[in-house]
């Protein structure tokens, strides 16, 4: 009887620890998913900027790398089909010939990897890092 009670208590404690650890895993996953330039990347989209690129393009990867985890918030337009042949109509119709190409609300374009400062100047978006653990 006393042994069963000990096992029941031990089992309950183990379950409690597992639940607590799974909660911590979810919290840390959310913290990692937040990028330090989320607000800046979202502002670029709100101001009408578009980033045309291709999944296989090393310069596009370099542009995304400047944004780190915040690249997921970029106003990115994929131009290349999976087979790398041709171009999706949205990019063809826009006249995109090089990657990466940034297009702005005023219709101007720049090609190649752009420094974050240049994108901030062109769009008027403030270039500042988001505070860690900020929700958004």
Query: What structural class is derived from the secondary structure elements?
Result: alpha+beta
CATH top level of the largest domain is Alpha Beta
Q: Please, how many helices?
A: 5
Number of domains: 2
Description of the structure:
- The chain contains 5 helices and 4 strands, in the order H-H-E-H-E-H-E-E-H.
- The chain is of the alpha+beta class and 136 residues long.
- It folds into 2 domains: 1-33; 38-123, Glutaredoxin (3-Layer(aba) Sandwich).
- Strands 2-1-3-4 form a 4-stranded mixed sheet, with no helix packed on it.
- The radius of gyration is 23 Å and the shape is extended.
- It starts with a helix and ends in a 13-residue tail after the last helix.
- The model is unreliable at 15-32 (pLDDT under 50).
Secondary-structure blueprint of this entry?
Layout: H1 2-33, H2 38-46, E1 50-53, H3 58-67, E2 76-78, H4 89-94, E3 101-103, E4 109-111, H5 116-123
Parallel strand pairs: 1-2
Antiparallel strand pairs: 1-3, 3-4
